[in-house]
From TrEMBL:
It comes from the Bacteria. This is EAL domain-containing protein. Residues 24-274 form the EAL domain. Signal peptide: none annotated. It comes from Lichenibacterium minor. The chain holds residues 520 to 806 of 806 of the full protein.
Length: 287
């Protein structure tokens, strides 16, 4: 009996695996047409100055507006795009769209684009960035490329060569999700990043956990000692903001300031509200 039930469970397992595979295949086919059908959009999340609260940069975050599934987040289709080779076209679309939109912004805000490790290895990121800079006439210094430590795992020399080429073009390079994923610091000898983005898993725990505070302080100091800027991501509470500011964190990003949204949703009123979050702390410090 037990054996029979086991076999039944296995059949059920196989059937559901099959269903999952089918669903993935279908999603992949739909994704192949998403660019031409205009279903991909960029949302933007402000990254603000840690002292003044002024917006300095907007991070572009891709969303797939699927006609029946609704808004599909990147975690559900970027890995699929990487497996199917669609990441080349999608990545180019992201870089070009971000540069085109940012070139028309009413303020000289920077735009930050994400490039995943597989995308970095599979596609010619330098060509994509070079083409987008030229086509849209945006100054390279207004463009930031966010990469993670994962780009250095396979062939660090090649990755560093690509980063150096991007640097020569005049774009900035940020190290995203800093402190997760890759356990060695030796790669910091190979390349001078422009900024670290402290992963939100550290920021989340600030105020709950002394260890998170120590780690966050150490990352801020490490960044500053290496001569780079430090951004905290995933800031959700005023208490987290206050701690990060007291540590001298250069930039703040998170739901507390604003959620990612279409750029038009971000108004002057939001800028004032954002600055007010920082005013409270300033008022307290000067009291
Ligand atoms: P990331 O680059 O580390 O982006 C930060 C993620 O944290 C975003 O999720 C953002 O919406 C979310 N976030 C921002 N503030 C908060 C907060 O206060 N609390 C919490 N809990 N989350 C916050 P999203 O947009 O779902 O993107 C997830 C990841 O997908 C990104 O992580 C990035 O690795 C990747 N991604 C997004 N857009 C692109 C793209 O255009 N190309 C590539 N290759 N990857 C992308
Ligand atoms: Mg990012
Ligand atoms: Mg991140
Ligand atoms: Mg991430």
């Amino acid at each position: 009996r037990v054996k029979q039930e086991g076999r039944g469970a296995l059949r059920f397992f196989e059937a559901s695996m099959n269903a999952q595979l089918q669903a993935r295949l279908l999603l992949g086919q739909e994704l192949a047409h998403a660019v031409e059908r205009g279903e991909l959009v960029l949302h933007y999340q402000p990254i603000v100055n840690g002292v003044t609260g002024e917006v300095e940069t907007f991070e572009a975050l891709i969303r797939w507006m699927h006609p029946t599934r609704g808004m599909v987040p990147p975690i559900q289709f970027i890995p699929l795009a990487e497996e199917t080779g669609l990441i080349d076209g999608i990545g180019r679309w992201v870089i070009d769209t971000a540069c085109r939109e940012a070139a028309g912004w009413p303020h000289p805000w920077r735009v930050s684009v994400n490039v995943s490790p597989k995308q970095f290895r599979q596609t010619d990121v330098c060509a994509a960035i070079g083409d987008a800079l030229e086509a849209n006439g945006i100054e390279p210094a207004r463009v930031v490329v966010e990469v993670t430590e994962g780009i250095l795992i396979d062939d660090a020399d090649k990755a560093v060569a690509i980063l150096n080429r991007l640097r020569e073009m005049g774009v900035r390079i940020a190290l995203d999700d800093f402190g997760t994923g890759y356990s060695s610091l030796s790669y910091l000898q190979l390349f001078q990043f422009d900024k670290f983005k402290i992963d939100k898993s550290f920021v989340n725990r600030l105020g709950e956990d002394d260890r998170a505070l120590t780690l966050t302080r150490t990352i801020v100091n490490l960044g500053h000692n290496l001569g780079l800027q430090v951004t905290a991501e995933g800031v959700e509470t005023q208490a987290q903001l206050d701690v990060l500011r007291s540590l001298g964190c250069d930039q703040i990003q998170g739901y507390l300031v604003a959620r990612p949204a279409p750029i038009d949703a971000f108004t002057d009123l939001d800028r004032l509200r954002t600055k007010a979050l920082f005013g409270r702390e300033r008022a307290r410090l000067t009291a």
